[in-house]
Amino acid sequence: MSCCLCPCLSVPWQCYQPTARGRTRRVDAEQRAELSHGSYEILETQGQQRECPALLLAVDVSSQAVRGGQLTHICQQLRSFLDSLQRDSGSDQSQLRVGVVTYHSSLHLYNLNPALSRPHMLVITQTEELELPVWEGLLVPLRDCRTAIDKVLQQIPSLFSEAEDSPASQELPVHYGLHILKVAGCPGKVLFFHTAPPSDGSLNCSSGSSGFFSSSKEKSLFQPPEHCVALAQECVAQGCSFHLFLFSQQAVGGAWPGHTPYLTGGGVYSYGCLQGQVDSEQFHSDLRRCVDTETGYRVEMQVSVSKGLRVSGCFGAFTPGPDPAHIRLATIDWHTALAVQFTHHSPLDEERGVVIQVALSYTSSLGERRTRVHSLSLRCSRHLVDTFRNCQAETLLTFYCKRVYCAVLTRPLQDLRDELLTELTAMLTCYRQHCSTTALTHGQVREGGKCSET
């Protein structure tokens, strides 16, 4: 038996089904998905305990949120959203566990245990150490705590109507949200609704976008801090993604607002005036899309290639590891896009071609562990005419954009421009020398059947 990824021959298994007489196709090909489909999925946790994901809502209750009216509007939107989610969810969302926390200079947890007569609020003032006095009741299935959550969201604006004029800590919902999911032993999404601008001056860009991009520390502003990368790695191991809903009219920039959501598969949503109808409708739409999007958690992707080919790089919104062929993500959905770079270190067999196989393991929204396998066979050619004829300009454009975007955080922009220009010029020159049938003068390239100056 010959493997499609390597030319080695191995002894067939005892359960091997022979091929029919005079045919090369196995007789059990239709009964086995890996023999009849290029893409198939395997359920790994059949009969095992499921890890249903959770949804944690973290709301900023600082004095700025109270005075500006954002707190009241956010609570109203969350109440109507959860009500519609319960009506439209059906059996798929019935296992969704929901929790609520509020924060400013301290953290407030809410025990939503349905066995209690009313929800209990726990206040944590010593937030230096991640300790939870109690964790049972912090995450409760939506079908069991809908009434309790509605009462909490209804009373939050009145409870903090006289909040002290102290800055809200941006670190509290991030660290404690991850800690709550760790204690509960489940993946999930943390949605935090932040009103106050970042309190750290190094992360605030109040001078406007022009001063931000012309700063002498431009690269340091774009690069995530070490603690942010370490936090993202913990989120990947737990399967936790952060989604930041920012309600501030002040310009913000730097590493804090975007890097943690970016590295965990989340997103950043900014609104200038929540009381406006446009922003209000956009907020409801973003909230709905964020929760309803089918998501995979604790994602591991393994890329395997045939002999002579290797994975030399991978670019996208994730924390890179030592092996570019093995990628780990906190979450994945249909918005996620990764660009994988392949190189060949030896001549490829034109008759056999090359085979690329991607195995994606993830936890579904129902708590099931699944593995989705995609196999792709491609032809090889030593003739450059075939290469240019079969390449796709859209694919090349997407690849170069992702590669340059990932490199711009660490390398000077001018160096990347020069490198990209040199690479594309060499590509067009190769096309002109080997594929063009019309004699062109120096400084011209052939594109779409027309001559253009370079």
Question: Short description, anyone?
Answer:
The protein is of the alpha+beta class and 454 residues long. It has 13 helices and 17 strands.
Topology pattern, helix = H, strand = E: HEEHHEEEEHHEHHHEHEHEEEEEEHHHEE
Mean model confidence by pLDDT: 80
Give the helix proportion (percent range).
25-40%
- Tally the helices: what do you get? 13
Apparent shape:
globular
| Unreliable parts | 200-216, 446-454
Question: Biggest sheet, in brief?
Answer: 8 strands, mixed
Written account of the structure:
This protein has helices at residues 33-36, 63-68, 70-89, 142-159, 171-184, 209-213, 218-222, 226-238, 256-263, 277-292, 384-390, 393-407, 413-434; strands at 39-43, 54-60, 97-103, 107-111, 120-124, 140-141, 188-194, 240-247, 267-271, 296-305, 309-315, 326-332, 339-344, 354-363, 369-378, 444-447, 450-453. The chain is an alpha+beta fold and 454 residues long. The strands form four sheets. Strands 2, 3, 4, 5, 6, 7, 8 and 9 form an eight-stranded mixed β-sheet that branches. The chain has a five-stranded antiparallel β-sheet with strand order 1-15-14-10-12. The chain has a two-stranded antiparallel sheet with strand order 11-13. The model is unreliable at 200-216 and 446-454 (pLDDT under 50). Helix 3 (70-89) packs antiparallel against helix 4, helix 5 packs parallel to helix 8 (226-238) and helix 8 (226-238) packs parallel to helix 9 (256-263).
